[in-house]
Design goal:
The protein contains 7 helices and 4 strands, in the order βαβααααβααβ. By secondary structure, it is of the alpha+beta class. The chain has 2 domains: 17-67 and 133-155 and 191-200, Rossmann fold, CATH 3.40.50; 70-126.
Length: 201
């Protein structure tokens, strides 16, 4: 699209996130969405990104929620029990097997995710080789180890309204402890992912 519209001030690179230090440059803003939780060691990739962040830079990270993905874990266990190949045919077979489960089966809850309905996204969700799931307290530990400060989650307006009703203090949205309490009550809050902003302390 950049070629089509004659946009020339964007540079594209494709490579291993663990080798990004070879770029020998830093960035004012870094976004990493849906990547770290598929690494063998998510913290290793995150550390590389922190090293690339300018002192006053901003970083957006998105990670899977353990609380919101219980049905995904059940579906992943079910898929492994079928020992299917990671081919389009194997993926479609797995998806049909889930559809044919009786109503109320915990694995069938995964059908509430939009990713269920395309081959590539289903594979990413249910049959990916690596998937790490996080908790809000776990994110707090990661941020502390990386010397980062939590700035807030991105979430839909109804969720933010409900959060403010529960935590009316102005600075509550910047406190992970409050969000942890909120997620305990509303476990589907981060069904898509935890998507949040942070910066260096």
């Amino acid at each position: 699209m950049t070629e089509r519209f004659g946009i020339s001030n964007i540079t594209y690179r494709q490579g291993d996130i663990l080798k990004l230090a070879n770029l020998d440059r830093s960035f004012a803003m870094i976004e990493c969405v849906g990547v770290l939780h598929h690494l063998d060691d998510p913290m290793a990739g995150w550390r590389v990104l922190v090293e690339l962040l300018e002192p006053d830079g901003l970083m957006k990270i998105a990670l899977y929620s353990q609380k919101a993905r219980s049905s995904v874990r059940a579906a992943r266990d079910f898929a492994r029990s079928l020992s299917l190949p990671l081919t389009a045919e194997g993926i479609r077979y797995c998806r049909r097997a889930i559809i044919n489960l009786p109503d109320g089966h915990p694995v069938k809850e995964v059908m509430h995710f939009n990713d269920f309905f395309t081959v590539d996204e289903f594979r990413d969700m249910v049959m990916h080789v690596h998937e790490h799931q996080f908790t809000v307290p776990g994110i707090a530990v990661c941020l502390d180890q990386l010397g980062l400060q939590f700035l807030g989650f991105e979430c839909a307006a109804p969720t933010r309204k409900r959060f403010r009703e529960m935590f009316p203090d102005n600075d509550a949205a910047n406190k992970l402890e409050a969000w942890h309490q909120f997620e305990e009550i509303y476990p589907d809050t981060f069904r898509s992912m935890y998507s949040f902003w942070c910066c260096r302390k």
